Amino acid sequence: MVEALRGLGYNTQTALADIIDNSVAAGASEVRVELIWAETESRITCLDNGTGMSAAGLDLAMRLGERNPLEERSKSDLGRFGLGLKTASFSQCRRLTVATIGTDNMQSLRWDLDYIANSHDGGWHLLEGPHPGSEKCLEPLSDAGKGTMVLWEELDRIITPGSTVQDFLNLADKVEQHLGMVFHRYLEGSRPRLRVLLNGQPVRPWDPFMTDHPGKPYNPPVFKHPSIRGIEAECHVLPHKDMLSPEDFERLGGPDGWTAQQGFYVYRNERLLVAGSWLGLGTGRSWTKDEAHRLARIRIDIPNSADADWKIDIRKSTARPPIYLRDWLTSLAEATRARARRAFAHRGRPTLLGNKQVAEAWKVERLASGMRYRIDSDHPAVRDVLDEAGTLLPQIKAMLRVIEETVPVQRIWIDTAENKDTPCTGFEKAPSSEVSEILMVMYRGMVERKGYSASSAKEQLRATEPFHAFPYLVDALPDNL
User: Fold this and answer.
1) Beta carbons within 8 Å of 41's beta carbon, 6+ residues apart
2) Which of 115, 149, 267, 402 has CB 3.0 to 4.6 Å from 141, enough for a Cys bridge?
3) Number of domains composing the chain
């Protein structure tokens, strides 16, 4: 049975997050995680400064399934099944020792899977004390005088034939990223509720939503479910790459990258359970992760009383929204995805100036047979040419139609997917002199041929694509031609 439990699907980072959940439940304000390389003798320790346990409490904690998942728990409890400590540990090592100092002197118990496997009576032998030769590993707890230490030895799922110290260091990086993401709401702020140190270095929180960044096109208030208490949602559209520094863009991509990190982020008691998933929702068929919606991230907060409804698994890594929430979540996601798609397509530039819509050069026609992209004949640059075309009007209309019918949609789509970004448009990276030259042609036509005043022509250009992105160049146009 124990060997079967080892295959629940944990990796090292999710297993350690499960161990830290117990530290949080014990009131710890600091957790020290150490990954100690010693080839086949390598070990991992997790030491907290929580309240510790009594001898009876430790004995109960080391038993598999020591509590009923249907029992009512305190609001701050991050567990459910009474299996996390054991299954998370067994998934990574063959020898688990837990030592604690609470109301009693130091107590320690040990599961040794090799000992159980070689036992002649088939018994579940929970051993007292650390493995002979491992006593020094518990000295940091003894020095602290309070708290709990979890010790993993015989790391057969981590140290495999061919493993090197670099592999171990790479694993430490993954652990740091994961813990910074899962517990970021505990780690944030000038006075964080929790401090996690990995090999002596503080773990930095990773905020998936880049809260309060000025480049975010959408960050509304919290939505509370109209009838169900304790369910909250916060919808975010992140800044486009053009609005971020290279460092911020790299960091905000998260452990798995921009495309993989889109979707819902489900939190229970502010602990992250699901990091980026559309939760099987969608209109018609389930949404998949794609480049167009990579800027969409939605925070969902649920109480631990909703675990059964959300079908939270033992690893705390999957969740499925209950039927009574699916329509509400789908409507929030549809609105957020639409805004994210628009921000991605327009490279973060606004399509609204105040309450006024920017005049776009292209429009989308949605027909029963599919979508078509058309040049908007009312765009000022296009309308000016059509009005002055005279006998050339049929040829110009034919030229525009040829352009519309030959837009390289497939090539653009493939290039966008490969480059994970939209193509450069809107005079991006073009010199200001080039933009000003074209802007002056339009401005002169509006004033001299259309009869606009200088101020009204400038106002029109400020709300015209792509010049809405260059208000300073519009303002620099002369008032007298």
Assistant:
1) none
2) 149
3) 3
CA distance readout (Å), 333 to 69, 208, 345: 31, 16, 18
Rounded CA gap, 165 and 150, in Å? 22
Asked if the structure places residue 217 within a domain, the reply is no
Residues 153 and 290 in one domain: no
Q: Domain residues for 376?
A: 356-475
This prediction's pTM: 0.75
pLDDT in tens, 200-248: 999 999 999 988 788 787 777 899 998 888 899 999 999 888 888 888 8
Same domain assignment for residues 316 and 384:
no
Half-sphere exposure of 355 (CA within 13 A, CB side): 0
With H, G, I as helix, E, B as strand and everything else as coil, classify residue 267.
strand
> Which pLDDT score, from 0 to 100, does residue 376 have?
92
Helices 432-444, 380-388: crossing angle, 10 deg rounding = 50
Look at the block and give the residue holding tokens 């631990």: 304
Are residues 41 and 177 both part of a single domain?
yes
The yes-or-no verdict on residue 347 having pLDDT over 80 is: no
Q: What is the dihedral of CA 316, 318, 324, 329, to 10 degrees?
A: 110
Q: Give 365's strand partners.
A: 372
